[in-house]
Amino acid sequence: MKIKKNTFLPAATGLLLLLSSCASDVANRYYSSEHYPPKKSSEVEVLHKNPTRPYEVIADFQARDAGETTMRRMAAKIGADAVIVSLLGGHFSGTWADEKTWSNETYSRVTGTAIKYK
User: Fold this and answer.
1) pTM value?
2) CA distances from 108 to 10, 45, 64, 85, 102 (A)
3) Residue 82 in 3-state DSSP?
4) Is 17 in a helix, a strand, or coil?
5) Which of 25, 65, 95, 115 would bridge 55 by S-S if both were Cys, CB 3.0 to 4.6 A apart?
6) Residues 6+ away with beta carbon under 8 Å from 104
7) Which of 84, 94, 91 shows the shortest CA–CA distance to 109?
8) What is the pLDDT of residues 49-108, one digit of tens each?
9) In the chain, what are the helix, strand and coil shares in percent, each to the nearest 5?
10) Which residues of 57-88 are buried (b: 16+ CB within 10 A; e: fewer)?
11) Measured between alpha carbons, how far is 84 from 67 in angstroms, rounded to an integer?
């Protein structure tokens, strides 16, 4: 499904801003000129290195105080087949909570590259 470029970029930017609401210090960049339907998170493969089969990068995400689940959810919302996750910085294992957030697995910096297989 093709969408006009002059309407797609603002819509994609808005979607990525909406996706960033669960983690702090979020940056997203959408590269594809196509709009893909959302998927269930369970349908998005989580990878820790580049796959051997051909693929196209459709977006990059990064966030602080997030984990693989956040990257997978963000990739699913834009219709990615998989997300290549890099866990950067320190890992916190245990349970912590404050007034707005509860987590049991976060990293100080997480990046994800959303891909579509060719």
Assistant:
1) 0.67
2) 29, 22, 5, 13, 15
3) strand
4) helix
5) 115
6) 93, 94, 95, 96
7) 91
8) 999 999 999 999 998 877 889 999 999 999 999 999 987 766 555 554 444 554 545 556
9) 25, 45, 25
10) ebbbbbbbbbbbbbbbbbbbbbbbbbbbbebe
11) 12
In terms of Cα–Cα distance, which of 27, 11, 26, 24 is closest to 78? 11
**Do 82 and 46 contact (CB within 8 A), yes or no?**
yes
**Tokens 């196209």 correspond to what residue?**
56
Amino acid present at 107: Y
Q: What is the DSSP letter of 33?
A: S
Residue that the structure tokens 């470029």 belong to: 5
The amino acid at residue 54 is P
SS3 5: helix
Closest CA to 114 of 62, 73, 60: 60
